[in-house]
């Protein structure tokens, strides 16, 4: 178990002159009052007229004043996370605090003082380059949570993305663009693109206030080089660098309209984050349900807050007396977070779920053969192929997920259709029995008053009431029950007069007329049947549409598989062309080497011939000089 590392950073006091919002000094002014914060290396306490206030002393791993640079904070708090991420541990670093306290400056920095995110990006590639015995594949994504909706900052129009969970990937955002990168410059360009798409706004406390939480995620996969066993483990780690929007008080920010709505969502998500930290800081026996799912921020950072990750929190605070209550709340949050423990482990997998393993067998030989002037072009080609394959795999997963949802929907519709059919048959049966037993229309079947006799009788009739499917009620009831109708009602049975039980003579009083109106059924059977048939037809149509959609998705899935296969073929063809080109270059190189050897031999022969000729010329010159000397001597000797 490892506790979360927590540090607190105080920004410089506000000056009376407006400053750039991207720097740690923000616009506004603050007066010095009777209360102030006393800061040392690891402790913070509140003083009132130089006297410590009880219950306001806090101790943390590190405490930074306004003179500390981002590089120093990164070295003390985040560099160990980067080393761990390269080694296979999940890592998370985020800034927390009130609005206008320096969170974005701490995470992003400026040109003169780079923040934690750019420093971490460069450090990751430098650390990976030092690990000569491992091969790395790094991909990045950038998202924001704006008004509790997840937007992709690297793709315009990609908004309201859903959160899913699987055994292999854990909690992830579906449809989020992931870009495979080879160097830090590519990542910094993507960061600039994401910052341009992020939501910012102006309030009374900050000219450029962050209106959304952002999560910059790097997935680092690595495997041992020159591994021969396909079952060798691959390390997959996730590094989250989070810039949270600041908590706000409407009375101070003066927010209204859109800014007010944004502030409500920001405060709600930060409140849920505080609730999660409170639950995690409690004792295990007293800890109740942890509300990760109440907010998308805590849902995405679930493993970082209380699971398999190394986590560092930088809490930023304002030193002015007017912000003492907000600063105290930030310090209380930091104090509770310091009690949370995580269990970080190296993430190693033995399946082919990692993207690196799926691509390594196809490109490792090609990477070894990259030489000469074509290496840069081939590196770009490999990067493009990797990104295309990764996008096709993500699209295939998305389509498979939609196909599964369509199948579940189709099964649900089929189940509902079967239930409605059974319900329709059951309702038809109930309606027939009910109509026969309770409808006022049966009153017409009684013997009219004109046929009443003083002697009443009871006849034993057939048991047609028990068979609802063969109701004897005729479709058109008349006002007089004649003999044919009696025969029809008794299914052709003839009344046995011996079965008649006569009663004593008595004068039957006349029946009073029934003045009450016939109470109609709540819904006629024809209308109900028509409604049920319409609902069944609608369900059948939805089922057909679902089947057509499933067919379309299956076709799209097949097309993606074909596209993936074509990409693999292109990669294989590129590899083959590279091999062929290399063979040609090797042959040309051998030819040039043989020519060079021949040229060296010619030069050697020429040098020998030149040396011999030079020797002849030297001897000739000597002889000529001797002859000239002799001639001069002969002339002098003559009188």
From TrEMBL:
* Record-level GO cellular component terms: condensed chromosome, centromeric region; microtubule
PROSITE patterns documented for this protein: KINESIN_MOTOR_2
Q: What is this protein called?
A: Kinesin motor domain-containing protein
Which PANTHER family does the annotation name?
A: CENTROMERE PROTEIN E, KINESIN HEAVY CHAIN ISOFORM X1
Q: Where are the transmembrane segments?
A: none
**Residue ranges constituting the Kinesin motor domain according to the UniProt record:** 3-340
Q: Which SMART domains match?
A: KISc
The residues the record assigns to binding ATP are 97-104
Keywords, ordered alphabetically: ATP-binding, Coiled coil, Microtubule, Motor protein, Nucleotide-binding
**UniProt keyword Signal, yes or no:** no
Stretch list, region Disordered: 564-593
Q: Which InterPro entries match?
A: Kinesin-like_fam (IPR027640), Kinesin_motor_dom (IPR001752), Kinesin_motor_dom_sf (IPR036961), P-loop_NTPase (IPR027417)
Return one Gene Ontology term, BP aspect.
positive regulation of phosphorylation
Q: Which GO terms describe its molecular function?
A: ATP binding; kinetochore binding; microtubule binding; microtubule motor activity
Q: Which residues form a coiled coil?
A: 356-423
The family classification in the record reads: Belongs to the TRAFAC class myosin-kinesin ATPase superfamily. Kinesin family. KIN-7 subfamily.
**Among its keywords, does the record have Thylakoid?**
no
């Amino acid at each position: 178990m490892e506790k979360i590392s927590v540090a607190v950073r105080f920004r410089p006091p506000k000056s009376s002159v407006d400053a750039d919002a991207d720097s740690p000094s923000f616009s506004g002014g603050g007066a010095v009052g009777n209360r102030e914060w006393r800061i040392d290396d690891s402790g913070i306490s509140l003083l009132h007229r130089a006297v410590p206030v009880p219950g306001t002393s806090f101790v943390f791993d590190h405490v930074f004043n306004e003179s500390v640079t981002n590089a120093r904070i990164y070295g003390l708090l985040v560099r160990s996370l980067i080393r761990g991420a390269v080694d296979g541990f999940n890592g998370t670093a985020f800034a927390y605090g009130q609005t206008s306290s320096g969170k974005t400056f701490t995470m992003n920095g400026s040109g003169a003082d780079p923040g934690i995110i750019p420093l971490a990006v460069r450090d990751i590639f430098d650390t990976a380059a030092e690990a000569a015995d491992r091969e790395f594949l790094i991909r990045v994504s950038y998202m924001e949570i704006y008004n509790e909706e997840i937007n992709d900052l690297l793709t315009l129009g990609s908004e309201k993305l859903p959160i899913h969970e699987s055994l292999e990937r854990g909690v992830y955002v579906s449809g989020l663009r992931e870009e495979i990168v080879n160097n830090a410059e590519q990542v910094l360009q993507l960061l600039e693109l994401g910052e341009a798409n992020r939501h910012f706004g102006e309030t009374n406390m900050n000219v450029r206030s962050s209106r959304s939480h952002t999560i910059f995620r790097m997935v680092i996969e690595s495997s041992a080089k020159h591994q021969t066993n396909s079952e060798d483990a691959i390390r997959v780690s996730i590094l989250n660098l989070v810039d949270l929007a600041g908590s706000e008080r409407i009375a101070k920010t003066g927010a209204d309209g859109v800014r007010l709505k944004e502030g409500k969502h920001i405060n709600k998500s930060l409140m849920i984050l505080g609730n999660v930290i409170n639950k995690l800081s409690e004792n295990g026996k007293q800890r109740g349900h942890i509300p990760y799912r109440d907010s998308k921020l805590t849902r995405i950072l679930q493993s970082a807050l209380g699971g398999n990750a190394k986590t560092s929190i930088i809490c930023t605070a304002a030193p002015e007396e007017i912000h003492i209550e907000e600063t105290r709340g930030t310090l209380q949050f930091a104090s509770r977070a310091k009690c949370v423990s995580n269990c970080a482990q190296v993430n190693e997998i033995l399946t082919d779920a990692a993207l690196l393993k799926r691509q390594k067998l196809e490109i490792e030989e090609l990477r070894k053969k990259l030489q000469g002037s074509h290496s840069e072009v081939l590196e770009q080609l490999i990067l493009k192929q990797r990104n295309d394959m990764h996008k096709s795999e993500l699209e295939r997963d998305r389509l498979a997920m939609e196909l599964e949802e369509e199948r579940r929907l189709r099964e649900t519709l089929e189940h509902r259709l079967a239930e409605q059919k059974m319900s329709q048959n059951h309702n038809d049966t109930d309606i027939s029995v009910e109509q026969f037993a309770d409808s006022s229309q049966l009153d017409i079947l009684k013997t009219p008053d004109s046929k009443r006799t003083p002697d009443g009788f009871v006849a034993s009739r057939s048991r047609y009431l028990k068979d609802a499917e063969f109701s004897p009620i005729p479709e058109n009831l008349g006002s007089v029950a004649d003999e044919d109708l009696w025969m029809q009602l008794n299914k052709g049975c003839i009344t046995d007069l011996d079965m008649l039980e006569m009663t004593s003579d008595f004068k039957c009083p006349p029946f009073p007329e029934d003045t009450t109106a016939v109470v109609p059924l709540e819904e006629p059977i024809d209308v109900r049947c028509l409604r049920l048939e319409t609902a069944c037809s609608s369900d059948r149509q939805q089922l057909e549409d679902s089947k057509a959609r499933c067919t379309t998705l299956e076709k799209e899935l097949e097309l993606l598989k074909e596209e993936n296969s074509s990409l693999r073929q292109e990669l294989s063809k590129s590899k083959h062309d590279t091999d062929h080109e290399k063979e040609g270059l090797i042959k040309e190189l051998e030819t040039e080497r043989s020519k060079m050897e021949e040229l060296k031999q010619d030069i050697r022969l020429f040098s020998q011939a030149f040396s011999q000729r030079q020797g002849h010329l030297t001897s000739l010159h000597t002889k000529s000089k001797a002859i000239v000397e002799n001639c001069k001597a002969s002339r002098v000797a003559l009188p």
